Amino acid sequence: MRMTGRAFVLERKTGVGVPEKALSPVLDSVGQNSPEAELFRFHEAFGKVKSALETQAAESDIFAAHLEMLQDPMIEEGIEEAIGEGADAVSAVKQTCENVCAMFSEIDDEYLRARVDDVKDVCRRIEEELEDKNCSNPFADLPPGSIIVSEELFPSDTAAMDFSRIAGFIIAKGSATSHVCIIARSKGIPAVVGYDIKNIKTGDTIDIEVKNLVGKDLLGTISKVAGRAKLYANAGSVEDIRKAIDAGAEGIGLFRTEFIFISETRLPDFHNQSEIYLEALKACQGRPLTVRTLDIGGDKALPYLPMTKEDNPFLGLRGIRFCLANKDLLRTQLQALLDAFDKADKPCKLRIMFPMIDTPEELKECRDILL
Question: CA 217 to CA 202: how far, in whole Å?
Fold first, then answer.
């Protein structure tokens, strides 16, 4: 895939400081810099961001995940604690963001590590409310064929974009599994991650040649087979699989089935799932398809499937731990996968991945259900 366009280098505005109008008159008696005043400012900003995300969540699963993340006790209580220790509201948000991002960065799972960008995005939105930024849309007047160039991009940035005018993304920081790259992939737009952008200026003509950027483009995982690199794509839908195969992927290294469940208003039954998995196998045209069983918990929740709130949901009942606690759900998914494999034209190659296995006993339990 080759794409040519004109660079648009995103330059973020710095903060404008804390405006006096952010403080309620009823707090004048406790002083502008008191913990009480800073807590009031934080809760006011928090409420505005929550309200905005509730609106966006109705249209996007990614913002629904951001809303869930915003309400995680790690963020809200971390900021309140920092303010209680004397930090102003903006500094408390920055400090808490750094702490949470550091925790995510140490997680082995690539998908969870990529959620660092989502934590930054949520915290950045709180900061902007605290600093009373009223920034105009930087993407409002993009000429057609623009290639967005930025140190970092966040899902909230994409909400302001007209994708019909965008030919590609070049991002210095981030991950190919970030939500921005997932959005780009769903739009069929190439995204280069981990590229040094310091010599790129707005207006420069840029060629994006995906085949020459193996490991940095939007297609995902690379493995070494028989002395040559094979490129496998990550996918969240059958349409993603079709696009990846059309673009030259040699298989699907990770099919995230949670997106099937998130897009529904009720739990998909055996027949619904079997039809989707059969379409996925057909879309692979005989190439390998690795299906990851349902991975929910942490930043991924299902509105129709109640989940107990946890102090640290990312390390709690999620992934395979959740599925083993709900064996009927896992059994139905595995039966649907095997049914689709039986119905698919041969040859076809189906692999099943269980997320976040911690012990040999968990793997054995999964195999017993499968076999």
Answer: 21
User: Tokens for 286?
Assistant: 């005989």
Instruction: Spell out the residues 6+ positions from residue 264 whose beta carbon is closer than 8 angstroms to its own.
Output: 272, 304
Cβ neighbors of 26 (< 8 A, separation 6 or more) are none
pLDDT at 34 (0 to 100):
87
Q: Between residues 28 and 164, which one has the greater pLDDT?
A: 164
Burial letters 269-295, b for 16+ CB under 10 A, else e:
eeeebbbbbbbbbbbbeebebbbbbbb
pLDDT tens per residue, range 233-281: 888 889 989 988 888 888 999 998 988 887 777 888 999 999 999 999 9
Q: Indicate left, alpha or beta for 347 from its phi (over 0: left) and psi (-120 to 50: alpha).
A: beta
